[in-house]
Amino acid sequence: MTQSSILNVKEGFVSPKRVQSIISMLTTTSTSYLLLSSLDVARKQLATKGKELISNVIGLAEETRVRINQISGLSCVGREILGTKATYDIDPTKLIITVKDLGINGHEVEMWLRKHYSIEVEMSDLYNILCIVTLGDTQEKMDILLDALTHLGNEHADNIRENKISSVNVPDIPILALSPRDAFYAETEVVPFEESAGRIIAEFIMVYPPGIPILIPGEIITEDNLSYIQENLKSGLPVQGPEDESFQTIRVIKEHRAIK
């Protein structure tokens, strides 16, 4: 079935009637009762067994997290990361597994798991893979993941002390010279990627997933931005956005000479 969802409206924060009127502008008048019935069954399951089901999922995830941290070269963060400015809370069902001590990057691990164990992770980046534990997962499935990660750790055991992945400096948030709207409607031109530092970008550049932009239209490109993009491309991560998918060129705002 195609995707569908439920919008939860907390009483007292917004008017349910106002929400309904806005939703009616965007949704179809020919609702699929097959999808509605599926949503209602899911709602009933959460209402009657939700706490038990979620508790089981969290317990399964926490046990798996502990066992991952026992595998040499791997680490899986937990609640110990809370209390810093970079964190607000943690979703216990998400297993963020750091692999850089094995001397390989997250994208390489994603491809390896897919090839050797038919395991699909949620996403990967330069240092990590993300696995999500759901209501459909069982201890048997977690054991398969743990067997795969143990195999991975053993295969790269020699790299743990000798060939750690070097740290990548994440660039600062770029300066916004134009609003994205003004950049969208501005006159643009294409310049070589390597020569674009200092120019105002006219397109998005992001690693997707997760889809957090490295650059958005209107921001000033820096050398740090270019180096970070190249590092992601070198690692095989899915960098997306520009018209030129080869990243030989990039679209920027056209510069005009001053009137003398």
Automatic annotation (TrEMBL):
Keywords: Decarboxylase, Lyase, Pyridoxal phosphate. The keyword Lyase applies. Residues 174-229 form the Orn/Lys/Arg decarboxylase C-terminal domain. The keyword Lyase applies. One of its GO terms (molecular function) is carboxy-lyase activity. Pfam families: OKR_DC_1, OKR_DC_1_C. It comes from the Bacteria. Its cofactor is pyridoxal 5'-phosphate. Residues 1-141 form the Orn/Lys/Arg decarboxylases family 1 pyridoxal-P attachment site domain. Gene3D superfamilies: Aspartate Aminotransferase, domain 1 (3.90.1150.10), Orn/Lys/Arg decarboxylase, C-terminal domain (3.90.100.10), Type I PLP-dependent aspartate aminotransferase-like (Major domain) (3.40.640.10). PANTHER family: ARGININE DECARBOXYLASE. Belongs to the Orn/Lys/Arg decarboxylase class-I family. This is Arginine decarboxylase. It comes from Halalkalibacter akibai (strain ATCC 43226 / DSM 21942 / CIP 109018 / JCM 9157 / 1139).
